[in-house]
Fold this protein.
Amino acid sequence: MVRGMRTPAVAAGMVLIYVCGCDASRELHRKRDPGVLVVAEAADVISLDPILVVDSESVQVGELIYEGLVGWRPGTTDIEPQLAESWDVSGDGRTWTFHLRDHVAFHDGSPFDASAVVFSIERLLDPKHPSFVGANVAGYWRSLLKDVDSVVAADPRTVKIMVKRPYSPLLGELAKYPIVSPTAVARYGDGFKDHPIGTGPFRFETWTPGEQVIVKRFEAYWGTAPALDRIVFQVVVDARQRLIELESGSVDLATSILPDETPFVELHPDLVLYRAIANDVSYLAFNTQHPPFDDVRVRRAVNFAINKEPIVQLAYSGHATAADGPLPPQQWGYHAPAKRYTYDPVMARKLLAEAAADHRFDPTKTYKLYSMTTPRPYLPSPERVARFLQGALEQVGLHTELELAPYPVHRAALSRGDHDMAVFGWVGDTGDPDNFLYVLFSSESTVPGGVQNVAFYREPAVDKLLLAAQATSDERQRSMLYADVQDRIASDAPWVPLTHSELVVAGRAELEHVVISPTGHPIFAQIRRAELSR
């Protein structure tokens, strides 16, 4: 995390807007309950059952309500104990034994024990389970945990997870997998997604769809009690309005700050800009099942047609790096691919002409380019980027029509494969390269109900390498396998990798312990408010 430096590079008019509001802002904060944190978000949560969703808004609220067997050290993806105090793995790598923490309760008062862990995993994986979530939902988690063979409560404090084969990514995935109250799931059934019960530091209070979610400190929490009494996640769709409400003091944190607004925050005496390197990627995906994008020459042509540096400046004000592949450079397993695509519109036109001569590309046809309008952690200005891409493609003779939609509609369209090309992105969930490479490129990630591979890229050689990497615990060997995967992906070009972003959150200066998670949001449970002295 880096606290923003104050800079003078802002127009005088904006200076007046901010400075004139300071006294009123401070007075408002004197009247505000210091135990309540208000967060302005660009979008609402989709569900409060984390295994049903992958959007950032739902995930960040879910992380306050639920916990996993293991967790992450704040600000990192380093594994540390959470609901399990310790664990061990059998010599053949097929049995994981977790020793559970004692004296832990769910928010509904029911006890946490080994049977709750078994219940939480079986409701995802066992179609015969009375609370099975359904075959057409939770596909993301089902694909990650598909190698779990059985889960057994050896005693109330011990859980054994048996896997079909050695599976190295399991521990990172369990750091994100929510343990739920069996009592609450039995009570609410399908409505559990609206009435979440976990063991986390905050319990659910209310959700007004389209407006706000409120969570309240769980007084019986087993760990260190949060300083905050409540957190309000308030939906403020307009980016400028989020900043206005932050400056006025009606909210304490604002996410999805537009890059060209960051200097305003840096200048303001009562605001602070928090930055962190993100574990993410934004990309332009081709639907490799749609002509002409089933031809590698066309896909390579588009890669040569895109100049990424203007995107970094245009959409991020420089707070990002151009991507040469799916893995961020700081992610272990990163490999600079052997095949690189420099900006070369001449080569792009040449490849398209070759494909046209073979009747594999129709230069008179208009293709559908899909983009969300909702800002995402990996792409704060998606429509702006989509229009830049449209212009770049037009210059090399590839005509497109933009299809713009809010994130949930966009996500559904991509899962159906409606697009020819699509602007999208991903935030790594587990700290493991598998969560990028397997999730986004394996054939198994194109299955309906769990589509994450929106390029619908299916390459048996890549699938084989990904499975081999999952089966070994040797990080060096896994890195070598992943290097091969990244080279093959670069050659096949199912994407144009665009950027790896820098996460930016704006907050009130009186907040303390604001740390940004690599998954794209502040670690809200550790935030506190300093005593106001003004």
